[in-house]
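seq:
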Amino acid sequence: MSIDNAVVVNLQDELILDSEATDALFLEARTANTFTDEPVTEEQMRAIYELTKMGPTAMNIQPLRVTWVRSAEARDRLVSYMADGNAAKTATAPMVAILSVDGDWHEHFPTFFPHAPERKAMFEGKDALRSAMAGNNGHMQAAYFIMAVRAAGLAAGPMAGFDTAAIDADFHAGTSRKTIMVVNIGKPGENAWLPRLPRLDYDVATATV
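struct:
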């Protein structure tokens, strides 16, 4: 870890999470590049989504959609769309999730905004606005998804190297969904981690006004 023991002790004093949870979610968590063959269960998949959906989004719009790629046939198709450096990782992960955003998220207004469902009309015919909101909020939800994977005791390998148009044509044909991320999921395997890269210091990345 790049954080010395004195900082870790001070940090932990300010948190309501215990040190095990802090390590699992942040300090020791890493992007996995290899996985064991231990399967990811349906119960784990549901738990990951149940946590993900609770993260805040603008007007509670929740544009993120998850396509779990479980079958061998679907996996082979997905692998064929991955960049060369990502294909092997996606082929061998116990579970893979395609994360997309739904440009027609406003259709669910009565469900996610039941106290004012009439606000759906504000977004009718405004494709560019809906797309921008889907992208902004969907990427936030993708981050929640990664943290939820970690909370389930698994490792995530989020990736952006793929043929987006091909994945959308194959897995999202006839919908308004657009792929934003592919996430490999499972227990970390042998040599799963690359060296941890430095993080920006507090004084560099923050300002107080």
